[in-house]
Design a protein that fits this description.
The complex is a heterotrimer. By secondary structure, chain B is mainly α. In chain B, 75% of the residues lie in helices and 1% in strands. In chain B, strands 1-2 form a two-stranded antiparallel sheet. In chain B, a hairpin with a 7-residue loop joins strand 1 and strand 2. Chain C has one domain: Rossmann fold, CATH 3.40.50. In chain C, a hairpin with a 2-residue loop joins strand 1 and strand 2. In chain C, helix 6 packs parallel to helix 7. The radius of gyration of chain C is 18 Å and the shape is globular. Classes of the chains: A mainly alpha, B mainly alpha, C alpha/beta.
């Protein structure tokens, strides 16, 4: 064997090893959480509030809280993101201002989540006087999700052939008519899919909600957007670091981690299924 | 009609501009809230002081050197693991894997990106920590090396997917030319493809680094959070992000301590801003080369 | 030589993309109810010229024009022109069939709806347009199926029907047969000849036999210049300029 062949043999196998390590990491994460968390999952765990100083009972309020806050995030981030994407892809000319917007988007996506948390405290909790609540937390997460929804929406708009726009304009449509009737309807599946992926990420975030509305433990469910809330990721953080009987509540922490992961993956999966269905519908 | 069209365009323009306003807003609010801290602390002490002890009775100290070093330490540690592993995996996906394996492996990497950081942090406590404690003969495995491992896991998906993009956009003609000269797959990868994709790969690593610097929950949960200056990777450390996360919940509003946390946030923001800027420059270079 | 009234009058028209000049001092007139072909090697500016007639080039940010193009006596190159009403008057069929991913019916109705036609009239107009485009018999039983289920030739005739539905005076066609097979091309050509009774047709083509078969007048463009314009018959049998002869006899192109 030539030395170059030996090098190739070693090299390519090193690459295979890299892939194997990545897969192993993923396997270990899932194996550990599923094997230790699955036993905790029951209807009672999912549908009951915590009891006895959070050493027993379930995580129902945290599920509700995460759901509520994600809805606020979606209501804020999706329309805002879609609007921005429409500007960038349909209206914007290649000017310094467009480049500045694009740079801002890239930078926003790199801003650490805890900095979003700080911003949320100042802007929503203090300046706007919302207090620590679902609304403040949802808006903070919404800002964090914005680069995702913009990018996803723009990708969706880019995938619409120019022929649809030109065909429509050539028939005497105004620019907005062309966008509204012949571009947006076909871009919606892509926009939704991408946005849901962003929301899934937001639903799993902890740092931005630490100070903007998440609560340690609440006796009752939130009744308005101005209430504090429990959230799954925050609950997991509490259960694994802040609880006084840390070892005793470990199974609850595992159960929470499993539910959180499942939630994120159902959202991802849902997005993919949605895309598949809407695409099929479009073809029919 | 024309007026209505102008109005609609204006609406979307404002929508686009709002993104710039959000970014500037974050920057400005961080500055505005950081400034009052420097009525009581000198900027010099803040930037060069090793001791962060804001609640000390009598003479509190606000030096960020220890936490900056902690952040850089865990970030560097994570990159030592994540960069070779990430680029190796990316190269495997573009050059070694069969199309079918690639079809399966790519979503798997994306799944890794979707795992919430708090879950990774939790595993740092219950899984990685005990192993490190055993190997290093310490009572606790919550230290810099634990944080580095977890951050590597967090940075991996970014590095893999962006490096893969960079590698797969190397023009096929380069590869073919290299093959035609008798180079084998490995030689082509090392001497032609990776150099050609280098700016894209660098950008990927920078973005991975940005993620690691700004990551909060994993380091908060797995690094032990001791504010002392770290001397080795088995020391517990408290990063900038963890400091904010722990202390902002405890301080009363509008105290020097409260404002000083915004100053830390500002430093963090500037760090990640520059990392992103550098990565952007690399990315631009690589887009130009590949046009 | 020219019959009928002048529909389009082009005078000293120049067109630029950024600093590159794509059309140089073009002047000629196009008569109503005729088929006018524009031929020339690729990159000669023929499609660009066509797209000036309904201002589709407005979509390109760096585009700039000088001189004038008058349609029905109105200068359409003015910057403040209402391009929407221009495009209702000047329909267009594109190089590749571009039906929208809607039903056959909705494709034809699209232009009517955005122009605010009352719903009860739409059905009749769709039928009329499909008949004008000689597509009605093939699709009348499946109007609500997706337009994408049609063959390429049918799709292109659907695009013609779609353009006709909003009652334009001029129909621009940008190499409409380039993506079609010979049978579908023949049908489309037949249709184009029929259409000139009601409409003025301006067609860009790289197929010289096609220009010879269907058009009354032919314009030969090269590198942004209008080299020669005249009766199709004369251009193809007794061209005045040598370069025209070289092109139509296939010595380059």
């Amino acid at each position: 064997m030539k030395s170059s062949d030996i090098k190739q043999f070693l090299g390519l196998n090193a690459l295979r090893l890299c892939m194997a390590v990545v897969l192993l990491i993923l396997f270990v994460i899932f194996y550990d959480i599923i094997s230790k968390g699955a036993g905790k999952i029951s209807w009672a765990f999912l549908s009951q509030p915590p009891r006895n100083g959070m050493t027993e009972g379930g995580i129902f309020p945290a599920i509700v809280g995460t759901f509520c806050v994600t809805v606020i995030t979606a209501v804020f981030a999706i329309p805002f993101g879609v609007g921005c994407a429409i500007y960038l892809n349909e209206y914007a000319k290649d000017s310094w201002i467009t480049r500045a917007i694009r740079m801002a988007i890239r930078n926003l996506s790199g801003v650490p989540s805890i900095v979003y948390g700080l911003f949320g405290v100042v802007l929503f909790v203090n300046m706007m006087q919302f207090g620590t609540c679902i609304l403040s937390a949802g808006l903070t997460l919404g800002l964090m999700t914005l680069p995702w929804t913009i990018t996803a929406s723009e990708e969706a708009l880019k995938s619409i052939p120019n022929a649809y726009r030109e065909g429509s304009l050539a028939l005497g449509a105004t620019k907005w008519q062309a966008i509204r009737t012949n571009v947006l309807p076909y871009a919606v599946p892509g926009m939704l899919t991408g946005s849901i992926l962003g929301l899934a990420r937001a639903a799993g975030e902890t740092a931005p909600i630490l100070f903007t509305g998440a609560a340690f433990s609440l006796p009752i469910l939130p009744s308005s957007v101005k209430d504090q809330f429990m959230a799954l990721p925050y609950h997991l953080y509490i259960m694994s670091t802040q609880h006084q009987a840390i070892v005793k509540v470990r199974p609850i922490a595992y159960g929470t981690a499993l539910v959180l992961i499942a939630l994120v993956f159902f959202m991802n999966f849902g997005a993919v299924v949605l895309r598949y269905h809407l695409r099929k519908q479009k073809k029919d | 009609m024309v007026r209505k069209e102008k109005f609609i365009e204006g609406f979307f323009f404002i929508n686009g501009m709002a993104v710039i306003i959000v970014l500037l807003g974050i920057f400005v609010l961080l500055i505005v809230n950081a400034i009052p801290a420097f009525r009581d602390i000198s900027v010099w002490d803040f930037l060069t002081g090793k001791v962060w002890n804001p609640e000390a009775y009598g003479k509190p100290s606000f030096g960020i050197v220890s936490m900056v070093v902690s952040t850089l330490m865990v970030t560097a540690g994570s990159l030592i693991v994540a960069i070779p592993l990430g680029i190796g995996t990316a190269a495997y996906l573009t050059d070694v894997a069969s199309p079918r394996v690639r079809e399966i492996a790519k979503p798997v990497v994306e799944i890794l990106a979707g795992i919430p950081s708090v879950v990774i942090g939790f595993l740092g406590i219950v899984l990685v920590g005990p192993i490190i404690a055993k190997l290093t003969h310490q009572t606790s495995g919550l230290n810099a090396i634990n944080g580095s491992i977890l951050l590597a896991v967090m940075a991996l998906p970014t590095i893999i997917s962006l490096s893969e993009d960079a590698l797969s956009s190397v023009p096929k003609s380069y590869t073919e030319a290299s093959w035609a000269l008798g180079a084998n797959k490995w030689q082509t990868l090392i001497t032609v493809k990776i150099p050609a994709a280098s700016s894209g790969i660098l950008a990927a690593c920078m973005l991975g680094m940005g993620r690691a610097i700004g990551e909060t929950m994993t380091v908060l949960m797995a690094c032990g959070n001791a504010s002392a200056f770290p001397h080795s990777f088995i020391d517990p450390v408290k990063t900038m992000t963890a400091t904010i996360a722990i202390e902002l919940g405890e301080v009363p509003y509008n105290t020097t301590h409260y404002y000083s946390l915004f100053a830390v946030g500002l430093v963090l923001f500037i760090f990640t801003f520059f990392v992103n800027l550098v990565s952007d420059t690399f990315l631009h270079k690589y887009e130009k080369v590949n046009r | 030589m020219e019959q009928g009234r002048k529909m389009v009058e082009v005078m000293n028209f120049n067109f630029f993309y950024g600093h590159a000049q794509c059309l140089k001092n073009i002047s000629f007139d196009i008569a109503a109810h005729q088929v006018t072909s524009i031929i020339g090697p690729s990159g000669c500016g023929k499609s660009t010229f066509l797209r000036c007639l309904n201002r589709m080039n407005d979509l390109i940010p760096s585009a700039r024009m000088e001189g004038s193009i008058k349609i029905d006596g109105q200068d359409i190159s003015a910057p403040g022109l209402d391009v929407v009403s221009l495009r209702k008057k000047v329909g267009m069929v594109f190089q590749k069939p571009n039906p929208f991913p809607k039903s056959i019916f909705d494709n034809v109705a699209y232009g009517l709806r955005i122009n605010g036609t009352v719903d009860k009239h739409i059905g009749d107009k769709v039928e009329e347009s499909l008949k004008n485009a000689v597509l009605w018999d093939e699709v009348k039983s499946r109007l609500h199926e997706s337009a994408l289920s049609l063959s390429g030739g049918q799709q292109q005739r659907l695009c013609v029907a779609r353009a006709l539905a909003i009652a334009p005076e001029i129909v621009l066609m940008d190499e409409p047969a380039s993506a079609l097979d010979p049978v579908a091309t023949a049908k489309l050509e037949e249709l184009i000849i029929r259409l000139k009774q009601k409409y003025t047709i301006i067609i860009v083509t790289h197929n010289m036999q096609q220009a010879a078969r269907i058009s009354d007048m032919t314009a030969f463009f090269m590198q942004g210049d209008l080299v020669e314009f005249g009766l199709t018959n004369q251009i193809f049998t007794r061209p005045k300029k040598q370069i025209t002869e070289e092109y139509i006899t296939g010595r380059f192109g």
